[in-house]
Amino acid sequence: MTHRPPSRARFAVSTVFFVNGVVLASWVPHVPAVKARHGLSDGGLGIVLLSMAAGAVLALPAAGWMVGRLGSRTMTAVAAVALCLALLLPVLSSTVGLLCLALAVLGACNGTLDVSMNAQAGLVEADYRRPIMSSFHGLFSLGGLTGAALASAGIWLGVGASRHLLVMALVSMCAVATALPCLVPSRAVEDSRRRVLARPTRALLGLGILAFFALLAEGAMADWSAVYLRDALRTGPAFAAAGFAAFSLAMAVGRLAGDGLASRFGPRRVLRASGATAALGLGAALGIGEPAAGVAGCGMVGLGIANLIPLLFSGAGRVPGVQAGTALAAVATTGYLGFLAGPPLIGLAADAVGLPSALGIVSGCCAVVALGARAVGGRS
Prior knowledge:
mainly alpha, Growth Hormone, Chain: A, 17 helices, 81% helix, 0% strand
């Protein structure tokens, strides 16, 4: 087996993380338009968005098994290409049923890529022998910022959603094609009897519970930030997309600094401070109720939750006695249950008490992560 320089492998994995962020962020700013085209209420939109998280949750256990059987390099390649191909499906859906199916496919592709590329990131981190996981997730956030900015510019210029997403899918596939040859070769597990589902250890369960609240908050901001700014605060569509851009930018900044913070202060302190920042920042923005404060609140949440998932996933990949793909799938599955519960929970709460009050759930989830940081070890 040919050894590839860690720097080339790191660039390749970074490219995949970046493309993943671009693809997802290219879709998110079109959520309000899709909501209006299908005549969905806040509650109805929450149920529809449930399909994407459901697709991810259903795919994650199988993704962990396939990473073990085929290797993370193969599965990263397959999932990245599939995600690019699925990007256009939601805006082409003519009925609500087809929209749900398209989002389920998109979620399954994203969930599979999530496990695969994080397993690749773990291999590269092992070669470097120092924390670099947050930098990969920082590239994901930079991809989100880029995708949101391009989508906002496209909306402002009047570019149609289908044309914009087609261009982004083609460009993303070209970027993925350049990265695939430099991914880290990973050994496939030959035992075909390896179980798709396994009982999680106590360590994985604790990490998974924190991931549940972290991904509920992250997913809710991705799905509802533009809707909150556009519908609740009566802003234009381009300004509404700026909320998600601020969220992605702040998350990128936080993640690029995250490796140094974790090394200096330890993951427990970083988790506690991060959760508190997100909870207080969003709570203050919702209380003020102004467009500028809404964008600033999105940024505070992005900064606060930036390093939650990188630290939790990095810890899962190092749990003794559990294959990395299986461990990541276990934590990600529990986390994605929060992603699964978030959209309908926010939507149904919005129908009952209004969207600003419903988004208080996100602030509460971040506070829970801060309070539960004791479950994570002090220093890696």
